[in-house]
What does this fold into?
Amino acid sequence: MAITVKPMPSGFGAEVSGIDLQEPLNQESYTEIEAALARHGVIFFRNQPLDEAAQEAFIRWFGPPNALARQLNNSRMKNPYFYDVSNIDENGKIMMQEHERRLYLQANLFWHTDMSMRQPPARVTALNAIVLPEENPPNTEFADTRAAWDALPKSRQAELEPLRVVHSVYASRAKVGYTNFNAETRNLLPPSEHPLVRLHAGSGRKCLYIGAHASHIVDMDESEGRALLEELTEFATQPQFRYEHKWQPHDLLVWDDSCTLHRATPFDDQKYRRELRWCSARELEPV
It folds into this structure.
């Protein structure tokens, strides 16, 4: 069966069907999937109950997987390429409100792009739905920073294009009051510097590279730079630039980190279990 790509009405986001990702990909299928991702920014596959081996094999088509530091907020994951996006503690129970990892994950409610604090940063992320709340599973929202860039006045684009931004996991987690990083993490995740405006390789379009990890702008007063970053994030996440993913069990949701922002949305995490498995492929070269 041939792969089918069904775009969302805006063209941002698309459903890909006609393929079972529990089976190994071949080059032809990967090429079609890569093309869909480059065009639409976010793609999703329904009913893909993948184990970690299958999900890791999938993400490796897009580049080397990101290995994460072994730290408190990732304690349930044995595979270094996976991140535990869940409200479940190390004993398999729903985390209490005061649990430290719960606080850490609250930063995912801010608009961000994955692993921008690293060099090279993430290129593609894959998130698989293992367990969803029985009622009203929370959506994940995305914003198209290519469309946002295109909507800026030319004079504004010219002002922004030379700027460079420092990205840091400590900046994003400080927004929720989390500071308890171990020494290994601090050694592995120093702040990184990236251009504010990137050229998206898959489409040849320019895009904003911003989000919650963006700490400040190089050679600009820090408070002024943060105000500019907040202004741009607010602009780029307007409703006309968004896609909202409505989760179903075993969805595999895949997005291009270089040209999108995303955020989690809240739910009753003291009542319902939610478990997602995250992995990402990094860029081949520094950005």
Observations:
- The longest helix spans residues 222-236.
- The chain is about 25% helix and 25% strand.
- Helices lie at 27-40, 52-60, 100-105, 145-151, 154-160, 169-174, 183-188, 222-236.
- The mean pLDDT is 95.
